[in-house]
């Protein structure tokens, strides 16, 4: 035969039932695989879109956040300056509060305050200044404006003998009355003949002739904050109201709400050890800042 026709494929024999089933199963498997591939591609695309949307929204949120602080807050005795350029720290800084606190570390300069065997070389004025400076930093970090009646115990060079640089009680109260802070907080350490007596005391007096409900509540808030920070039944912080004419000089002579905190007894060994301990000083400074927050947080 010389036929040019290509050889014809032999007709397929009809599939057996078993073969047909195998072929159908194979086709189904192919379809399933294709479907799985499509689902996987769709899932990846969806994840990519979600991720992109999250990135965009985070970027938008960041750019619309306020910086939180005005460029510069300046008060007598304290300057809180923020750099003009935005630094990463600025977004975490607390919002400035419109509250000024005057801290008065008791004694200082040529008045050492209490001296006891337990305090050794150091004096009450060293303790009150150390706590006052820690409190200043704590309150500043919480957004308050802080002024201090003094932030050093070193008498400036050239001060005439007998001249007390911002030391005298009259000078301190005149300073506060001129600056008009919202609150005045004087820090002291106590002594007592019975050296077993210990613990902190929060003294206050009503402003003469005025309703003392507000100042009582303010002082109680300090007692509560100290009680939380220094839980010890033996030396629970106490609230002490003073008669107007017998109150501590600073309490009688400032025009704004004021408390005087005796942080502990320098005549008691345990209290004196605390008063000299930096970690304890930081703890009581934080507790006093909590007291301020209880009264003035906005
Ligand atoms: Zn004192």
Protein model, in words:
Strand 3, helix 2 and strand 4 (145-148) form a beta-alpha-beta unit. The chain is built from seven helices and eight strands. It has two domains: 19-64; 97-296, Zn-dependent exopeptidases (Aminopeptidase). Helix 2 crosses helix 7 and helix 4 (213-229) packs antiparallel against helix 7. A six-stranded mixed beta sheet has the order 4-3-5-8-6-7. The chain has a two-stranded antiparallel sheet with strand order 1-2. It is of the alpha/beta class and 298 residues long. The protein has helices spanning 17-64, 124-141, 169-179, 213-229, 249-253, 269-276, 278-296, and strands at 72-75, 78-81, 100-105, 145-148, 183-190, 201-204, 238-241, 258-265. The structure holds zinc ion.
SS content category: alpha/beta
Residue-averaged pLDDT, rounded? 81
Binned, the helix content reads 40-55%
User: What is the CA-atom radius of gyration, in angstroms?
Assistant: 37 Å
Following the backbone from N to C, one meets helices and strands in this order, namely: HEEEHEHEEHEHEHH
Give the C-level CATH assignment of the largest domain. Answer: Alpha Beta
Distance between the termini: 109 Å
Unreliable segments (pLDDT under 50, ≥5 consecutive)? 63-91
The beta-strand count equals 8
Q: Under CATH, the topology of the largest domain is which? A: Aminopeptidase
What shape does the CA trace take? Answer: elongated
Per CATH, the superfamily of the largest domain is: Zn-dependent exopeptidases
Largest sheet: 6 strands, mixed
What percent strand?
5-15%
Bound molecules: zinc ion
Number of helices: 7
- Domain unit count: 2
Q: If strands are numbered along the chain, what order do they take across the biggest sheet? A: 4-3-5-8-6-7
